[in-house]
Amino acid sequence: MSEPHVKRKDVYVIGDNIVSPIGATTAANMNSLANNISGVQQYDDELVISQPFAASLFAEGRSFIKSDTQYTKFEQLLIASITDAVKGLPNIATSPRTVLIISSTKGNISLLEKEVRDARLYERIALHTSAKLVAEHIGFVHKPVIISNACISGIWATIAGMRLLRSGTYEHAVVVGADVISKFVLSGFGSFQALSPGVCKPFDKARVGINLGEAAATMVLSVNATKDDNIKILSGAVSNDANHISGPSRTGEELAFAIQRSMKDAELTKDDISFISAHGTATLYNDEMEAKALHHAGLAEVPVNSLKGYYGHTLGAAGLIEAIISMQAMKAGVVLPTKGFEIPGVSMPVNVHNTLVQKTSRHFLKTVSGFGGCNAAMVFTLNS
After folding, report:
1. SS3 of 36, please?
2. Which of 220, 177, 216, 218 is nearest to 89 (CA)?
């Protein structure tokens, strides 16, 4: 005898924000994208790294909040993004039914470049220190949850928020991700010869590497919705390649597993997916793996885009930024172009465009992958 089907709680996105070099709100970011404005610029600073690189960076010395407390740039970004996202949601942040989830890959690691390395510094750079400061500044009741799992951190944090809400543990989740780019981060990617000297070219034959970027983004999730809250999270899944610490799977089967599991949990087929917001880092191996994964999942014909040419790879914020922008694109009935793409350059081609596509969408898929072989996929829907 089969078990009865239990209806899961609907989880809605009721607020969002993006703070990036091309805008301090989601609306400002969408306006920049509509005008083909990218935050990626070329840099040649041998004091930072010995090779030219392109990245999306904030102006030096920019402040994001007004406060007498000495918050780091990383913490300022988190506070600024959360504050804007909950601005129209009274009592959400301070409710005992709300959880704060913070995603980042590097946090305050840049302090190692400037400060004396002692016990005080190691406590200061700990993610739990930043999380506590941010939570106290805004007024969250509960101890924050921290998720730091390479470049899937933002989407993994969103999946965690969805699951906590569906379990009944909380009614709201504020999911925020941020990272800043430092000499430490640049030299790490440079050591892999993975940095592009110009605007990156996702899925393109001439791609040579990534652009890095700094930003913050927030999604406010809730099981309580108004008539204006029309984006739902249907599902999410995580997998691991178990292949190599820095090299992705050569087959794409593991990301495909996360995609297929997410679609199964959403009770959708490949024909239901209107477009895919890909990780699309413009590195040789990631784009190849991701293209193979989409083929394995039966999604090779579905429109695909990557936003890395506009934002660079924003690490712990990447999945959140790209999901939020994709929600706005779905509402607007468009699929955004992939900046930098010209000539297909993966062995199993996928449906990438470098121009805006008009398309009515009901569901989109977000994919991410990262060092250590981690992968994640989520399905978002426009609630009718």
Report:
1. coil
2. 220
Instruction: Collapse the DSSP code of 33 into the 3-class scheme (helix H, G, I; strand E, B; otherwise coil) and give the result.
Output: helix
- Per-residue pLDDT of 314-337, as tens digits, reads 999 999 999 999 999 999 999 999
CATH fold, domain 11-222, is Peroxisomal Thiolase; Chain A, domain 1 (3.40.47)
| Cβ burial 194-228 (10 Å sphere, 16+ → b, else e) | bbbeebbbbbbeebbbbbbbbbbbbbbbbbebeee
Measure the CA–CA gap between 92 and 86, rounded to whole angstroms. Answer: 7
Q: Confirm whether 11-222 and 234-382 share one CATH topology.
A: yes
- Distance CA(135)–CA(104), nearest Å, equals 15
The residue among 211, 101, 217, 104 whose CA lies nearest residue 150 is 104
User: Is there a contact between 354 and 361 (Cβ–Cβ < 8 Å)?
Assistant: no
Q: Return d(Cα 157, Cα 192) in angstroms, integer.
A: 27
298 bridge partner residues:
none
* Of 108-117, 342-351, 370-379, minimum mean pLDDT range: 108-117
What DSSP character marks residue 81? H
Please tell me the number of Cα atoms within 13 Å of 364 on its side-chain side: 28
Domain ranges of the chain: 11-222, 234-382
What sections of 229-317 are H helices per DSSP? 253-265, 284-296, 308-311
Taking each helix axis as running N to C, give the angle between helix 318-332 and helix 153-166, from 0 to 180 degrees, rounded to the nearest 10: 70
pTM here is: 0.96
Is 4 buried (19+), middle (13-18) or exposed (0-12) by CB count in 10 A? exposed
**194 pLDDT exceeds 50?**
yes
Whole-Å CA distances, 27 to 36, 84, 301, 344, 367:
14, 11, 30, 31, 23
- Superfamily of domain 234-382 in CATH is Thiolase/Chalcone synthase (3.40.47.10)
Q: Starting at the edge strand that comes first in sequence, how are the strands of the sheet with 351-352 ordered?
A: 145-147, 98-103, 172-179, 215-222, 11-19, 231-240, 374-382, 363-370, 275-277, 303-305, 351-352
Q: How confident is the model at residue 1 (pLDDT cuts 50, 70, 90)?
A: very low
Contact 178, 77 (CB under 8 A): yes
